[in-house]
Amino acid sequence: MPTSRSVVIGVDSSTQSTKAAAVDADTGELLAIGRAPHTVTGTSGARESDPEEWWTALATAVRASVRQAGIPADAVTGIAVAGQQHGLVTLGADGRPLRPALLWNDTRSAPQAAALAERLGGPAAWLARTGSVPVASMTAAKWQWLRENEPRHAAAATAVRLPHDHLTERLCGHPVTDPGDASGTCWYGTGVGVGTGVGVGVGTGTGIGFGSGVGVGFGSGVGTGTGVGAGTGTRTNARSRAATSTAGAGAYDREILDLLGLDPSLLPAVAPGGATRVGTLTPAAAEALGLPRTVAVAAGTGDNMAAAVGLGLGGAGLLDHPVVSLGTSGTVFAATRTRPADPALAGFAATDGTYLPLGCTLNCTLAVDRFATLLGLDREDAAPGGEVVVLPYLDGERTPDLPHAAGLVTGLRHGTEPRAVLGAAYEGAAYTVLRALDGLLAACGLDPADPAVRDRPLRLIGGGARGRAWTETVRRLSGRPLVVPAAEELVALGAAALAAGAVTGADPVALTTAWGTGAGEVLPPVRRDEETWDRIAAVLTAAGPTLLR
Ligand SMILES: Nc1ncnc2c1ncn2[C@@H]1O[C@H](COP(=O)(O)OP(=O)(O)O)[C@@H](O)[C@H]1O
Ligand SMILES: O=C(CO)[C@@H](O)[C@H](O)COP(=O)(O)O
After folding, report:
1. ipTM for the complex?
2. Which residues are recorded as binding substrate (predicted)?
3. 290 and 73 in contact (C-beta within 8 Å)?
């Protein structure tokens, strides 16, 4: 292999594992994928992981990807991390985690979320300011939980990070995030409004600075960043200074931070986008990863934002391409130019400044796999549920907002086969995701039942998209055509495009469009199974009061 080949590494640090994709930066050829698992602990609503394990897993997966690709380490020119969203990482004075991270699917913060949602003028005000109403998943609710339950840790925190920011900082030494992942905190304003930005700055010896105020500014130079628009970056040493904004477009919302008692200086600077070059590997990171120090580090983003990049979505009104991701979470999202205001959706920013409205369920592949284990079946050994209905809300649920719910099975008879119970678990999980999809389409002004809308193919991604039982269940319950991209690991590929963008300045969405990573087999629609849909809907309605507790 010629050493002139430029290879970029895209990292997906998700709930269950880290995946690192080594990709030819010019052609988009996937050379190898390295993997390493994560441990998630907790019962009764708690879900935590040790950020140190994410770092070790990242190093293991990156080393494996380079080894399997058979490339020399100095062929690697760039790296970017896409991470599971919302998780709360708190660092102490030594720069190390004070405690395990509180994950997106930790529902202990539900009471704090409900209380926060009533502040600031109520849910409509949160929607207008941040695009989302606080639910247990949002970082703001987790921070508030920490303040109320572990005030010692909240007081000792010298830095507050999201999973991907934390890993990016471990790579390059700079505290930086991006608009996409920041928009999942509920303390970042993504709406169109007038901000009073004083700027966000992060300085280094070689100097990078980001300004953020009205719009988002970016500056470079030793010590001082000058923002475009009204944002002016200011150099600080170890920490960034947060922008203030009343209802800011692309800025931390100072009033929300005050409400949360969260010092803005604990937060990372917000780069203009995930492909922004934010530094190079530190000596320690270079050693851990076995890569040269010259490797460029991109700002990175949240996993769903990176999946959109991997699919070549962004920069346009792309509701033609709704996406369903089947992983630990089931997510539905679309790249849009405007942000719908719907309390059941998260009005996220995409990493390129457009929007990525998203619905997210807590119980998808992992919950169904748990049913397979309980029943002693292989995950593919499922039959249609028939009269059996399973609401597989083992972790509580986020969409619909039922954080205290548990799993529910109805319709069992003496003759019920285990395979039908497993099939019903698939149906319940798929129904919950597809119901969120209908909500997303409706919030974007489309009638989900309109045949012209129904004909738009769904892009099916995530680990579950590799399984036949999943694809067949989604086809049957949606009645829509599906596109299952041939490329696996769209999040890691999207991150690789961000890394390539940081190296060459190219637009990452244009890169993945050229790479063709979103292309795949089209599965034609089958007749929609309305009976099963209606049966599940009726059980969900009837069980509402039980599931609320
Ligand atoms: N071949 C397959 N068939 C069906 N499901 C699969 C297959 N491979 C992986 N999965 C499912 O994918 C899940 C992991 O998907 P992934 O998108 O990587 O999750 P996460 O991003 O939450 O870590 C597992 O829970 C597993 O159930
Ligand atoms: O909370 C959300 C989105 O809002 C989740 O989608 C997380 O980002 C975790 O993703 P996976 O690990 O399930 O891919």
Report:
1. 0.98
2. 85-86
3. yes
